Automatic annotation (TrEMBL):
PANTHER family: 3'-5' EXONUCLEASE ERI1-RELATED, 3'-5' EXORIBONUCLEASE 1-RELATED. Keywords: Exonuclease, Hydrolase, Nuclease. This is Inhibitor of KinA sporulation pathway (Predicted exonuclease). Pfam families: RNase_T (PF00929). One of its GO terms (molecular function) is exonuclease activity. The keyword Hydrolase applies. The lineage of its organism: Bacteria, Bacillati, Bacillota, Bacilli, Bacillales. Coiled coil: none annotated. Residues 2-183 form the Exonuclease domain.
């Protein structure tokens, strides 16, 4: 069994007419070895947006991704094709991300670009599970990745809000707590009517329509 820990970064837009687009894909492949789980391989690709190819100042500031990075990158269909080829669909795997937004945006992009969804299965939101592990009395607060790393006594390695770095750090938490995590089997079409959410939203904000720039203080919290 392979455990694919992936992370996506999106454009940030003040204009509600434009949906955020994936601009960065990072993933690590976690496998079982003689001494336990370990990171066996990594994947990374920037993605050139198709609707608004020029990055906003806010996107560059938030992610650190530059226009030069994007101009040399493939469009989403080619980037995801490379990702799936790296993933390898012949062996069983779980797709795990920190929070629900990445899965929702991935499915949404695949549908928009007419990319087959068959490879998106066994998806798991490990943020929810790990937040519950550190809760008490049946109550929990949603942890950021940085908070989870701190609770696991693991130092953050790399730059926050860069897809591969976030995926690597998420994998470290996943490996550390693996014996306490329960993974589920599913398929992308299991939630056919489930809409995608705006990125960088808090649990309270997800319950209502809002602009992600309504509160700039919250924008620069890690996810």
């Amino acid at each position: 069994m392979q455990y694919i820990i992936y992370d996506l970064e999106f454009t940030v837009s003040r204009n509600a007419r434009y949906s955020s687009e994936i601009i960065d894909i990072g993933a690590v492949k976690v496998v079982q070895g003689d001494d336990g789980l370990y990171v066996a391989d990594t994947f990374h690709s920037f993605v050139r947006p198709s609707n608004r190819p020029v990055l906003s100042t806010d996107t560059v500031q938030f992610t650190g991704i530059t226009q030069r990075d994007i101009d040399a990158a493939p469009l989403f269909p080619e980037a995801v094709k490379q990702f799936v080829a790296w993933l390898g669909t012949d062996s069983p795997y779980y797709l795990c991300a920190w929070g629900p937004d990445d899965r929702q945006k991935l499915v949404s992009h695949c549908r928009t670009h007419h990319v087959d969804l068959g490879w998106i299965h066994n998806t798991n939101d490990i943020q929810k599970q790990i937040s519950r592990l550190f809760g008490s009395g049946g109550k929990y607060r949603q942890l950021s990745l940085s908070q989870a790393l701190e609770l696991c006594h693991i130092d953050f390695d790399g730059q926050q809000h860069r897809a591969l770095d976030d995926a690597i750090n998420t994998a470290q938490v996943f490996i550390h707590l693996f014996d306490r995590i329960s993974l589920v089997n599913n398929a992308a079409d299991d939630e056919e009517n489930r809409g995608s959410k705006l990125v960088y939203s808090s649990p309270e904000e997800e319950q209502e329509h809002y602009s992600p720039f309504g509160n700039l203080a919250n924008l620069f919290k890690d996810h």
